[in-house]
Design a protein that fits this description.
36% strand, Alpha-Beta Plaits, 2 domains, alpha+beta
Length: 106
Amino acid sequence: MFAPRLIKRAERRQHAFIGVSGAPFTMASDEIKIVAYLILVVEPGKEYDVLRRLLEMEAVSEARIVYGEFDIVAKLEVNDLGELEKAVMGIRKIPGVEKSITLISA
């Protein structure tokens, strides 16, 4: 169930949605963002160079070096799919990026 404060704030918004609990809530269109996660495989030794470049990008809200099969996970927040495509294509061009997987959140 949503906290009363959150419901009160939501009632002042413009667009109606149904929450996980089934309770309706609203959100202003300027607050709706597409959130995607990018999983990157990077050349060995280039992790921090790629991370630095990612964190300079406007669309990247967070990025972390991870251990295991993948090297970096980045969170992107954009207004539309065109912005997402532009950001992903820019990231793929960063020297050292070998492979990327894009996950668009629901």
